[in-house]
Amino acid sequence: LTIMEDASMDPTTSPPDNTAQQDSLVSMTDVFLISLIVGLFTYWFFFRKKKEEVPDLPKMQSVAAPVRDSSFIEKMKKTGRNIVVFYGSQTGTAEEFANRLSKDAHRYGLRGMAADPEEYDLSDLSRLSEIDKSLAVFCMATYGEGDPTDNAQDFYDWLQEADTDLSGLRFAVFGLGNKTYEHFNAMGKYVDKRLEELGAQRIFELGLGDDDGNLEEDFITWREQFWPAVCEHFGVEATGEESSIRQYELVVHTDVNMNKVYTGEMGRLKSYENQKPPFDAKNPFLAQVMQNRKLNEGGERHLMHLELDISNSKIRYESGDHVAVYPANDSSLVNQIGEILSTDLDTIMSLNNLDEESNKKHPFPCPTSYRTALTYYLDITNPPRTNVLYELAQYATDAGEQERLRKMASSAAEGKALYLSWVVEARRNILAILQDMPSLRPPVDHLCELLPRLQARYYSIASSSKVHPNAIHICAVTVEYETKTGRLNKGVATNWLKNKVPDENGSNSMVPMYVRKSQFRLPFKPSTPVIMIGPGTGIAPFIGFIQERGWLKQQGKEVGETVLYYGCRHEREDYLYREELARFHREGVLTQLNVAFSRDQAEKVYVQHLLKKNKENIWKLVNEGNAHIYVCGDARNMARDVQNTFYEIVAEFGNMSQPQAVDYVKKLMTKGRYSLDVWS
Question: How would you classify this enzyme at the top EC level (predicted)?
Fold first, then answer.
């Protein structure tokens, strides 16, 4: 190209010279073309050589662990199982129920396995009929507002899209929910209905457990009717009484490299010393507490504001998300258990699954010490479930105590009543039971096998990432109460957080945490009005919302009305974030600040009373302004009362009947204009 340009640019070149230039051009073009061909051939040759080496790659791929495990069907065939119990579990209860059902199977000459749907391809359900006397059971918890649990999300998505023929599948579902929530047991109901739609055969009715009542009793009642239905369907009989079968064997390590011992990590060994993103439930980030201040000025309760440093973690969050923290049990409770069981808590041990084919090799990270297990991995503060009492009964040397434990673990009405009064209502944890039954002294390793895992605690984030990109704020109240036995019970996480006071070296103020995404979101358009209702610590996500609306205003965005309904007991005692809210109101970020002080006058005043007082304005914002409504806090009373108030307002100003008003509010929920972030 350069030669052509040079030639065309020279006006004085004579014809003979031009011919010579053309000859030169041809030869150079030939050289260029030949070079290009040789280059292409060389490239192809080496590319072809690489292609010839590809046969080695499948070997490499087969060694690398796939995202999902091998087919659960193949695993069941290999290990002689015919019942698979899948669990959708957020706090561990559904997993616990699934394990109990899978263990039950041996009493009927069947073999069961509990399975995490996240680890398998559930489209294999269509092949379950290849196994004789096969059955799939689903223990499905509902999380939040009718959502699947994290580990059941893929299964839920598959069910929604699947058009598989499941006509050979036999199934049963037990749902775990809470009646104080709007979408009670939504996941259990959906799985039960959808499997039937896909042609599967239900062999026993859907069970609906209610955690607001007595979830354990609901499960036992369903289970004692479920197994006879299984026996009838398959023509089998119970082979004997329920028996105690250890799932794990104890290995004590006398000579162990302490660098190989878990000291509280949730997943990877030494993950707290060598932090690597991304951070999640199995790999939490160790955040330092930058601030921990008491929010209330008086009263018996301790309400607190904490700020966690997430700098350099690459953690991102949105207003309305939840932060999960992994707490630790009170060391005095752990020490008392060690003393009662005459145990050296610093013994290094492992509990190894006797079922070598199981995906779950240990009940918690091993090897570790009993002290670490009882501090970081096991729930020692909640009343134990009946299956734990049944297994422990064999270790009571006093006949009366043994009989009492067995009775509470039975399905007899008298036994259920005794369990309800003596364990649940008296809030007896494992330490209290050991104290009140002097002859009950189980081996500490069996106790560690039986106790459920200590779960992460979730808090609504009280900050906006637009304003605080490197920090997550928490608003919480310490839980502390006296039981019917006169004992003082303390909430694990809130009392642990209370003691997380920032210090210079930071060693005492580290909190293992991760962020869980939420559907509780500000409107896409900043100009959309918002009505926020959050008494007590329900104010938390709204502090983040208000911060964000203020930030948007500073950016020059048009921000709609921002209305808050907040409530507390006394103005001078527990008015949380009083100064911050007053400032937001002064600056016009918060267009309305309505506060109900429930106990500052003879007649109690709650947020729903203030909503009724301002009902005309509420209706105008909702009907004309397309406002979004947000409710955060107590599900059992407040959220329900607020919802009923909205029914009344809609009926009155929308000229609707009660059923029409209810339908109107339900449609707001469906459209994402009425959102709940509640707990019971």
Answer: oxidoreductase
